[in-house]
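Lecture notes, unit on protein representations.

Consider one protein chain, 358 amino acids long.
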Amino acid sequence: MPGSRITFIEGQAGQGAALARIADRVRARLASPRYAALRGARRPLLTGMGASYAALAVPVQQLRAAGVVTQRVLSSEIGTGTAGFDTDCLIAVSQGGRSCETIAALRCAAPGITRTALLGVVPSPLGELADLTLDLGNEPDSCASTIGYTGTVVALDLVAGAIAGRGQDPWGDIAEQTAAVHRQAVEVVAGLRGRAARCVASDAVAAGASRASAEEGALLLREVVRMTAAASATRNYLHGGMESAGNTLHLVFGDGREIELARSLAAAGHLTLLLTTAPAEPSESLSVIRLPGVPDAVRAVLEAVVLQELAAQLGAERGVPIESFVFAHDDTKQGGLDGAGFPVAAHARADAARAPSP
């Protein structure tokens, strides 16, 4: 059934196998002659909202490294058209295919631009507007997205690889890699969850493709844990952003300046979780998850696996049901559906669960 729902925990458990299926599906479709215009894009413009926008940091980094002119932009910024952007292909990303802003952006794309929709589920209003569609195979997803987000990163990497002319892709053993990192995350997060749950806010800091993880991490902590959270680029965070540290949780992603940043924060007594491929010793306030040396897109998926476990354990520690949301908006999803393409009735159930007893 298109867009069927699973719980957050079920999404975590089935994620590796689902990502392998998604990679096989998208890889096969991109090889088809039908997608020649997408493979031949020279100035792609990528757009989305929320977690979809966060995921776009991965292909932007990859394409720029390959010399392809590209950028990501919030769909709300091009809802009246793509004038002012030199692009030959608009790639619109929406897991449920119902984000009103992304639909408007695709509808108003200038003539002559290849309109491509990357979707978690089909059919959808966004897909109906597109010249080309790529979907993740209607994989079931959780309300606070698990497979939908990481599957989008996989698909975007394959799209970027096709545009850049990459020979091979790195997704052959993704199921095993996600399982190994998840086992490590369960143990490390268990050691910091009590203190982390008492933090009043969180900062997520990263550079390059891992900016996707910082943005997704901040969003998960807001949605799942109800913790105030913000994402920053590493170098910008050093220019004053870190000065407000105090009873805060810090998520730091990277192997360069990020390591010294994490050590500085921890030395000042601020709880810090460092995700890195480099050797780094933990301390009283510094927890470390050692990631394998993998390409950027795979790393972003593995970082998301850690973030999902962090959100799940902190939500449990704070007594916040993972599947609940505080606010429901009637103007962000066409048809009144939530971010994963599911009925807003879920929000009503969550509100009822939080209502005071008579």
